Amino acid sequence: MSVAIQTNSPYPVPLKENGLLETYKENNPTHAIPQKTLDLEVAALRKKIESIPGFNPHVKFDPKKHIVFKEEYWSPKVTPQYTLDDLKITKTHVPPLSDFGAAFPFPLISEEAVNIMLWEGLQPHVLEKWARLPNLATGANRLDFHIGGYAKTEAPFSWAFFRSPELSEIVSKFCGFKARPLYNSEVCNLNVSLATEDPEIADTYPKTKEEIDAILAKQDAGDGDAIPSTLGLHYDSCSLALVIMMDLPTEAVGGQTTIVTGDEKSRRVPEPTIGSATLIQGRVLKHLASKPVTNHNRITCVAGMAIAPPILDNTALTSTKPSVLSRARYNTFYSDWTTYRFENLELRLKYLREKLAKKYEDGEEFNQEEVICWCTEMEEYMHKTWDEMEAVHNPPYPAKIFSTSYDELN
Ligand SMILES: [Fe+2]
Questions:
Q1: Separation of 65 CA from ligand 1 center, angstroms?
Q2: How many angstroms is it from 240 CA to the middle of ligand 1?
């Protein structure tokens, strides 16, 4: 028996004129990576990785060998770190999980790990199924695309790395709460901007230092949405974003993550070197990832992280659902998402049930107010699991909240 859904949304279906992808159920075939890109730039990059002496893509992930993080990197003296307060952010659109704002680049994985992870994501069958040109991007072309959702089934090394307790521990100590990676569709996302091998297009990039500086200065002075990027100004749908640099030649200029601080100014996060990472509380920090100003590759691997159960996470569907994010495959994405949310709720319920039993055994008086709070929180969590699904609500994208100043937030 099917149940009719009652919805009062002014946006019952995703519409192209609202910035949404109408073919989300067919996995957005219009945004597949052009053959020219696959044959030219991607094939060249894969070949470059395969020709590295001693390269073996079948090496098993070994945290002792492939994670190069050292204890001293947690120190603010070694890794610059910013609280929300340091970034002048006092108002947020959802409650922050801690005062952690951002950690600037710290070494995380070895060169071998970078190469294997890149190789796994750049396989032709992976690209065909799991890579798409971005939906809305400023100044993007056939060389800018996203790959994601493939880790669990296609990339054993990457999957083992992102699921490793060692990685969760590194992130947890930075952000001040117990963190863990999100579900498959949101843990191993390659954001790719490739240099063109096309001489005609290559000619349009700035060459001299003066030309490059002029473009950077213009970007810094202007509005964030005008900066060329594959993802405009936004809040993340995940609580924390761990961004690992996978490819960026030393001569590349521009292309950093830019954070909008509480006084609505842009602050560029220094670019990590290959194998290094940055971490931000992206759910509450407005930011964007810009493209390099020069004709160079920039590939990052992003993992969404969230608070670990039995605390309920504050993740959302806003920027990750298939009608917004072209690479998200309908069936895989929603299976990943709902399983993740249901599991968290199960763990929360189990935790609260055991807490109740313990209180009774200890002879404590039953606390109705407390139980009502628990139930309300779980009801809200359940509601947030479906309230942005395409079946019920498809407001214009980019979301209004992305262009709202911090000051205007309640
Ligand atoms: Fe982001």
A1: 29
A2: 9
How much distance in Å is there from the Cα of 287 to the middle of ligand 1? 6
- d(C-alpha 36, C-alpha 28), whole Å: 19
15: in domain: no
Structural domain of 348: 26-408
Rounded to the nearest angstrom, the distance between the alpha carbon of 188 and the centre of ligand 1 is 13
Residue 224: is its pLDDT beyond 60? no
Ligand 1 centroid, distance to 237 Cα (angstroms): 8
Rounded to the nearest angstrom, the distance between the alpha carbon of 283 and the centre of ligand 1 is 8
Q: Residue 147 Cα, ligand 1 centroid: separation in angstroms? A: 15
Phi, psi (deg, nearest 5) at residue 376: -60, -40
Task: Name 103's bridge partners.
Answer: 81, 279
Q: Is the pLDDT of residue 292 over 80?
A: no
Q: Which residues pair with 267 in a beta bridge?
A: 259
**244: CA distance to ligand 1 center in Å?**
13
Please report the sign of the dihedral spanned by the C-alpha atoms of residue 307, residue 311, residue 312, residue 314: negative
Total tally of structural domains belonging to the chain: 1
- Residue 396 Cα distances to 44, 105, 233, 404, angstroms: 38, 34, 15, 14
Domain CATH code at residue 403: 2.60.120.620
Please give the structure tokens belonging to residue 172: 């947890």
Report which of 409, 389, 404 is spatially closest to residue 11, judged by C-alpha positions.
389
pLDDT tens, 300-328? 999 999 999 999 999 999 999 999 999 99
SS3 state of residue 267: strand
Kindly state the DSSP code that residue 402 receives in the 8-state scheme. G
Residue 4 in any domain: the answer is: no
